[in-house]
Every structure is written in C-alpha cells, then in structure tokens.
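Good morning N.,

You mentioned wanting to compare the apo and holo forms, so I went ahead and generated the holo version with iron/sulfur cluster. This is what I fed in:
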Amino acid sequence: MAITIPIRPAGAAPQSGKLTPPGATLTSLPPLSVYVHVPWCVRKCPYCDFNSHAAPTEIPERAYLDALRADLEQALPSIWGRQVISVFLGGGTPSLLSPAALDELLGMLRAYLNLWPDAEITMEANPGTAEAGRFLDYAASGVNRLSLGIQSFDDAQLKKLGRIHTADQARAAIEMAQRAVDRVNLDLMFALPGQDLDGCMRDLNKAVSYGTEHLSYYHLTLEPNTVFAKYPPELPDDDTSAAMQDAIEERLNLAGLQRYEVSAYAKPGARSRHNLNYWEFGDYLGIGPGAHGKLSFHDRIVREARLRNPESWMAAAVRRDGSHLAETRQVGPEELPFEFMLNALRLKAGVPATLFEERTGMSLAALSRPLADATSRGLLDADPTRLCASALGWRFLNDLQEMFL
Ligand SMILES: C[S@@+](CC[C@H](N)C(=O)[O-])C[C@H]1O[C@@H](n2cnc3c(N)ncnc32)[C@H](O)[C@@H]1O
Ligand code: SF4
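and this is what came out, ligand included:
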C-alpha cells in the first residue's frame, strides 16, 4: 500500500525560503524508490479512502500511459543520475491494466530510470481481477513481487466489505500468483464487522497455509469520508481487537513470519524493500494521480503531491507546462524530526541513531529533549545507538510519535 504522509492542503502558504539549518546539508542522498499510482477499481469498497475511483466501462489506458510518460519526463531533472532500488505499482487496482499496458509502463520506467538490475518491482492485484495468464504476463514484463488484496477468506465478511471477489477466487489468485513470481504478499484486515477471535484465527490459519513470505495485516479503520464512516458497521471492541493483534503476531511468529513493522510480517530476507525505504526515510518519486513523493537534495528535502483527480492529472501532465501537476513544498527543519520519527518508530527494531543525521541533515541534538523525555517514561529503548520504541512505546505508538511533534 502507499504510505501517505499528511501534506499541506492546497492553497495553504508554502514554506518557501525555509532551508534546513545552515550547515545541515545532506552529505549523501538516500536510496530512491518509485511509486506509480493506478487510480481505478472495479468498484469502490466502503471502507477505502485511497485515491481510487470506480472504473469507467473501459480504463483509458492510452491516455493514462501518455500522461504517465509526460509526468515522468517532467520529474526526471529532480532525480538525474540516481539509481532506483524499487518500484511499486499501487492503487486503486493496477491489475486492471492489460498485460500490454503494463509491459509498456515498465518498459517506459526502464528506458527513463537508472533501475537497479535487482530492483524489487511490486504490483498490487485484486483477486477479483486475476486471470490465469495475466500474472504470468506481468511477471514476463518484469514484475517480481505480487501483493494481493485478500482481506479475508470468509465469504460473508468479503460481502460486508463490499469486495468483488469470493474466498474461492482469493485461493485461486494466490495459487496463480505463486506460480508466476517467487515473492507474494497477502493483504489482510482484522477487527472486521462482527468478527470474533475465532473468525480472525480462521482467516489467520488460512493465510498461513499458503506459506507466503510476507503478510500485511491491517486493523480495519473507519476512515473519514467513506461509506463505513457514514454508516458504521458493528466492530469488535478494543479488548477483542487487541487479543486479535496478539494472536496474529504469535501465530505468524510460529509460522516463521516476524513482525517487523506495525502491520508487516515477513520471513527472513523477505521484507519489502520498497516499504522499508519509506520507513527508513528514504526518497521516493511518486507519479500518477494523487501520488506522493519525497525527494532529497543536498540542501533541502521536498515533498510533492500530484493532482488527485485522474482527469485533471492527465490533462495537466500532457500540457507539459509544469503548472499545477503537483503541489511541491520544502519540508522545514521544524517538521523533519517528527516526519523522521513518525516513520522510523513504525519499525519494530527501530533504526540506527546515525540514520537521523544521514537522512535529515540535522544533528541528533535536535531530538535530545523528546528523546530524554520518552526514554525516562520507558517509551524508548535505552540503547543510545538506536532509535527504537520499547515494548511500552510500541503499545502507545501514537503518543510516542507525537512527542516528536
Ligand atoms: C490499495 S489497497 C490494495 C490493492 C487493491 N486495491 C485491493 O484492495 O485488492 C491496499 C490495502 O490497504 C488496506 N486497507 C484499505 N483501506 C483500509 C482501512 N480502512 N483499514 C485498514 N486497511 C485498509 C487493504 O488491506 C488493502 O488491501
Ligand atoms: S479495491 Fe482496493 S483501492 Fe480499490 S476501493 Fe477497494 S480497497 Fe480501495
């Protein structure tokens, strides 16, 4: 999934002129990833607040690819010469793209970018759009990791979640994905409407039975401006969902999948390189409607957000006059500590303390007060060489992150 960091709303004053503090330059630039947003889905799920739109009868593939090329060409000067370590095709539902369109898209990325030969190339796919030949075609074009939006293996739940697929289709999609690529992630959610601990365990055991190397297990949240926010379903209480969370971690641990981030579990060596780069405050270029990006230069760090509406983004991209395609703003030194910690503390093992200076260009001294405060309250590990939540801090992660605001 795409990680979204709150960005100043359109129209708010940009932070122009605010450079990172004098002398706080970045000596080396972080690893660079690329995120490509495909905005269409068969239909909108009632819990989803992603920039996804029910597809017209036919996806405007030609117009989309032309706009993506224009978007990428205009972005190239900001990443000249840099190697790209991973690509993530997210949505929306990228598996709605025809194999020919996907092939053209990846060919375009390869032609324009300095793509690392071993780059992780992930594509999100909805089991309701999986066809036997498609995954093999995607793999032949270069996709080497598939991320399937399973959510649950219970037909009644899938219906409540408004999913377009059944449990049987989920099973078939996993088997097809495993035949096509070595690396498969399953997205699941827990604390679903009316779900009890037994129901959660049934999903969990089913997920484990496929032996995939990576699972993303999200707590269902009621996001503003969704159908579920307007008509909230009955959800498990906090104690039940906490018991589910504990059961998930314990069961997956037994199956050899270690929790390494709030919602991510992986076998050794199978962590998502792309998502790790977000959490380690790496750089990412985001292209496509609504895509977010974070790019470092030696004297500043910039955040970008592309126009959200697919038609407006396509029109602005092909105009190629540089105007209104993305909102860009420099991240001020007063924001960097929180932005860094917001990401880094999501990692169960945290990050080396030296990464703060490396990625923000600021001295660790900028964090000394909240670090001391959080450590004395037992929310951070006492090890001064790492920035890492303690077991207590992990339980109250939002409070801990807010201490760096
Ligand atoms: C962009 S979607 C994945 C691909 C595809 N669109 C699909 O749904 O099959 C990313 C994932 O975010 C998770 N997600 C979306 N909305 C959520 C919510 N409100 N609460 C928790 N997880 C959510 C789902 O597990 C979903 O698979
Ligand atoms: S298919 Fe995925 S992106 Fe599309 S609406 Fe459903 S959860 Fe959101």
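Residues 1-23 have pLDDT under 50 and may be disordered.

Happy to go through it together on a call whenever suits you.

Best,
F.
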